[in-house]
Amino acid sequence: MVESVRPADFAAYWAAVDDELARYPAAPEIEELPRHSTGFSTVYALKLTSIGPYRIFGYYCVPRGEGPFPGLLYTPRYGSVNHVPSYEDRERYAVLQIMHRGQRLADQPFAAAYPGLLTHNIDDPGRYIYRGIVADCVRGLEFLLSRPEVDRQRIGVVGDDLALLVAARRPAVTAVQASNLLLYRLLEAAERTDEYPVEEINDYLRAYPERREAVARALAYVDPLHHAPDIRATTLLCVGDPGALGGTEWLAPLRAALGGPVEEYRLTHEGGVDRDWLDAWLARRLGAEPRPLMWEIGGEGQRGRAFRHDLQHT
Amino acid sequence: MQRRRGPADQYGTSTVRPPDFDQFWAEVMAQASEIPLYPSLEHVPMRSTEQVDVYEIGYDSLDGLRIAGWYCVPKESYIPPPYPGLLIVPGYISEPTLPKSWARLGYAAVGVAPRGKLRSNRHFNPGYPGLLVHNIVDRHTYAYRGFYIDACRAVDFLLSRPEVDHSRIGVHGSSQGGALTVVTAALRADVIACGAAGAPFLCGFLDAIELTHSYPYEEISEYLRRHPEREPLVRETLMYFDVINFAPMVRCPMLVYIGLADDVCPPETGYALYHVLSCPKELLAYPRCAHDAGSYWAMPKVKAFLAEHLEPAGLPG
């Protein structure tokens, strides 16, 4: 049985976030980063205003040549740093990696603590940090949709729960790929692990047991389970081992609640295999060429990585 | 012409060990040894449990920097001391681990935040990207000179603790943590009893950038694209920080695990490191695995390896 309950004012809560986003112009600042740009892609530092108001950061990369290009948003990982997008993505997509409030390059005036971010103001849905973080990611998608070089018919979002929430909040998304969910049924997950970052919840509830109801309420607003009916994009859920957090049974309520087409990919734990499969899936949805990194090396049955720009020795 | 990649285990890196490599690091270690550690502990009740006490720690390191970390130790009521010490070293972009689950297994475990990481970046913050190329033309000020020492001094922190058995201290990490595992085992060969290194980073730097364009190595490629004339200086500097050159100094048993489809830390460089380790060693190479380095299968073996050598008293799992 799923413990998370959709709050009665769920729609109003998120409508207020949308209103706040609409109130603040994004005021984008775009500046090329020659250090990261290559012959096939230009990389920009991007600054945007999100709710608060708060200034967030992103790496925005545009392939050189004639557009429009499929747009791809990477939502931030749970941690202070997000990399510049990969060569393989920069070649095919107008790709944006957002840094939400508190992460490096978006850590003034608020610097996120790890551990700590997951429970920041978690006793108050109106001040819970993920209200703003979700808005930051939505703002990133809005930026992509505003760009003339981006094909609005081919928009992908990749990430964890945040990718699902963005797709729910903005129906323009074509395809969403979600893995390593953190916010999904989080209170239940916390009862099954002591690994961070989920353990942050256990730490908090040990310190403030009387706030359990408030925590449950705040988390319900950001649980993808309750956003799932609003998602129209084709959704790929990455599924872990049976019986584990992230396994088929664990994700079944989410899958059942999704409002659009849904597919599952059973992770193999072989990162090279999983990476190539997921890359190809997204490329097919967005009308791009897959960029497999796997190749046979040495003709001796071993497998390793090949790279877009193979070893060049003259 | 284009060169196909051959078998990863037969790849030879261009790494050369400078004649004064040992002297260079002996001088750095001597300089560090003159700095009092001034260890501090602050109990963190919120993150402590019935089984494990959690502390925020700090200690002084090179260049006057204060280094932060987490220290997790079993409660005496759960497991009585002494405890084996375990140093957990972080990846390049990851936050330092709060090693509570290791403490539950019976280790007195430190998760260290070397300079530039959150909580250790007040006076040194080259950023990500940035750290890997910070002063990369000068071995005397290159970021990793202090970064390596910060990790080593976490061993001194463990040695300062009366509940830690000084004869049972191990080190473990993956990616940059894999590199730091080897470096710490090399520079503190007098103390470290075993090490488990996953997907070791910082091995064969200038070979790695020909084998991958993934970050963080891509930082070096970007730097050299903009400053190609500095390549000789960069090469010279990096030879002093190449983990392959630390390998011969390691004396304790080492477990190394790599993914043969790793685009972040190319398997060729992992093999190159493994080949020059002259200590008791074991390699786990996982086909089709990427920067995860087969952790799904490797981690149970890592836990068994550490337990075999460090003999924690906690329950498995």
From TrEMBL, chain A:
<protein>
    <submittedName>
        <fullName>Acetylxylan esterase</fullName>
    </submittedName>
</protein>
<dbReference type="InterPro" id="IPR008391">
    <property type="entry name" value="AXE1_dom"/>
</dbReference>
<dbReference type="GO" id="GO:0005976">
    <property type="term" value="P:polysaccharide metabolic process"/>
</dbReference>
<feature type="binding site">
    <location>
        <position position="78"/>
    </location>
    <ligand>
        <name>substrate</name>
    </ligand>
</feature>
<feature type="domain" description="Acetyl xylan esterase">
    <location>
        <begin position="3"/>
        <end position="240"/>
    </location>
</feature>
<dbReference type="GO" id="GO:0052689">
    <property type="term" value="F:carboxylic ester hydrolase activity"/>
</dbReference>
<dbReference type="InterPro" id="IPR029058">
    <property type="entry name" value="AB_hydrolase_fold"/>
</dbReference>
<dbReference type="Pfam" id="PF05448">
    <property type="entry name" value="AXE1"/>
</dbReference>
<dbReference type="InterPro" id="IPR039069">
    <property type="entry name" value="CE7"/>
</dbReference>
TrEMBL record, chain B:
<feature type="binding site">
    <location>
        <position position="92"/>
    </location>
    <ligand>
        <name>substrate</name>
    </ligand>
</feature>
<feature type="active site" description="Charge relay system">
    <location>
        <position position="291"/>
    </location>
</feature>
<dbReference type="InterPro" id="IPR039069">
    <property type="entry name" value="CE7"/>
</dbReference>
<dbReference type="GO" id="GO:0052689">
    <property type="term" value="F:carboxylic ester hydrolase activity"/>
</dbReference>
<dbReference type="GO" id="GO:0005976">
    <property type="term" value="P:polysaccharide metabolic process"/>
</dbReference>
<protein>
    <submittedName>
        <fullName>Acetylxylan esterase</fullName>
    </submittedName>
</protein>
<feature type="domain" description="Acetyl xylan esterase">
    <location>
        <begin position="10"/>
        <end position="308"/>
    </location>
</feature>
<dbReference type="InterPro" id="IPR029058">
    <property type="entry name" value="AB_hydrolase_fold"/>
</dbReference>
<feature type="active site" description="Charge relay system">
    <location>
        <position position="262"/>
    </location>
</feature>
<feature type="active site" description="Nucleophile">
    <location>
        <position position="175"/>
    </location>
</feature>
<dbReference type="InterPro" id="IPR008391">
    <property type="entry name" value="AXE1_dom"/>
</dbReference>
<dbReference type="Pfam" id="PF05448">
    <property type="entry name" value="AXE1"/>
</dbReference>
